[in-house]
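User: Can you predict the 3D structure for this chain?
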Amino acid sequence: MDGGQRNILKNGFQVIDERDRFQLVIYRLGKGPEPRFRKIEANVPAFQGLHLIYCAQCPMLPKSAADLSEMAAAHGLKCQ
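Assistant: Here is the predicted structure, written as structure tokens:
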């Protein structure tokens, strides 16, 4: 745990889920279900090729998705 993470947790945030090197951290404002990382491992064999999976929370995603598709095409890959 680094100093930045200690500061976040010290201020009332909680680590509620972990996946590989990523941690999902929340600050609870009220009652309700906790968010979790989706379990997608069982679906991985169904995906052949390069698949981009993302959520629409970042305004940079449309440009990044277009850039990735262009880069994949330059290397002969189809990005879905």
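The chain has a mean pLDDT of 84. Helices lie at 3-10, 61-74.
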